[in-house]
Structures are given as structure tokens and as C-alpha cells.
Amino acid sequence: QVQLVESGGGLVQAGGSLRLSCTASGSIFTIDTMGWYRQAPGKERELVARVTSGGYTNYADSVKGRFTISRDNAKNTVYLQMNSLKPEDAAVYYCKAHILSGVDMNYNDYWGQGTQVTVSS
Predict the structure, then answer these.
(1) Are 32 and 98 in contact, with CB atoms under 8 Å apart?
(2) How far apart are the first and last CA of the chain?
(3) What are the DSSP calls for the chain, one per residue?
(4) Which residues are CB-contacts of 104 (< 8 A; sequence separation ≥ 6)?
(5) Contact at 8 Å (CB) between 117 and 93?
(6) Whether pLDDT at 30 is above 90
(7) 15: which of 83, 94, 100, 118 is 20 to 30 A away, CA to CA?
(8) Is the pLDDT of residue 1 over 90?
(9) In 3D, which of 80, 103, 99, 116 has the Cα closest to residue 4?
(10) Is the dihedral of CA 3, 81, 121, 91 positive or negative?
(11) Facing residues of 39 across strands?
């Protein structure tokens, strides 16, 4: 009933930039916090950045100053602008949204399918 679809991943050289997008669709009453996580092979999934419905943001220390999270509430979309990419940024990036379903009026966390970011050096 609720789906998050991500796009924007790909291959980029170290020092380059990518912008990830994630759009929520389905029976949505409201969206609370949205965030981006990443997971490298054999590693734990980690928080990259998140933004609340009120616009508060926080970032992992490893990406501060390089990544920017933003959202367009009218489009149910969250973005992650990634600049000055490093090889250690390579991972599958997932978006997550805390959403109040319009069907059952319950909050739940929803995850995107993931998009691969590869950084070459």
C-alpha cells in the first residue's frame, strides 16, 4: 500500500557528486521523519542523514559538510545531495520514511529498495 522508490545511484569518480531521490506513494496520510541509510557488503546498515517533518536535520559524522538532505513535502520526496564523494561512501543507499498509513491510520517504517552508489578512485 505504501512504496518508496529510489533513484539516482550510479558510478562516479572520487570527488564527484550524485543526487539520490526517493518518492513515497500509496495510501499516505502523513509522512514524519525521512532518512537515508547505507550498507556496504558485510557491514551493518548505518544512518547517513535524516530530516524531520519540521525540517530538522542530522548527519553521520563521516558525511557532514559533504552531504545534504532535503525534502519536498508536496512531492512526498526526500533527496540526498552527495558531494566530494569518497571510495568509502560506496554502498547501497536506502531511504526510510516513518509514515502514517491512510488505510489503517497506523505509523510504520517503510524502506526503499536501495540504490547502488559506486565510487572509483
Answers:
(1) yes
(2) 41
(3) -EEEEEE--EEEETT--EEEEEEEEESEEEEEEEEEEEE-TTS--EEEEEE-TT--EEE-TTTTTTEEEEEEGGGTEEEEEE-S--GGG-EEEEEEEEEEETTT--EEEEE---EEEEEE-
(4) none
(5) yes
(6) yes
(7) 94
(8) no
(9) 99
(10) negative
(11) 92
User: Residue 115: pLDDT band by 50, 70, 90 thresholds?
Assistant: very high
* Torsion angle of C-alpha atoms 88, 91, 93, 94, degrees rounded to 10: -120
Residue with cell 544512518: 47
Location of C-alpha cell 558485510: 42
Measured over the CA atoms of residue 33, residue 55, residue 60 and residue 14, the dihedral's sign is positive
Q: Which long-range contacts (CB under 8 A, 24 or more apart) does 18-22 make?
A: 18/82, 18/85, 18/117, 19/79, 19/80, 19/81, 19/82, 20/79, 20/80, 20/82, 20/93, 20/95, 20/115, 20/117, 21/77, 21/78, 21/79, 22/77, 22/78, 22/79, 22/95, 22/97, 22/112
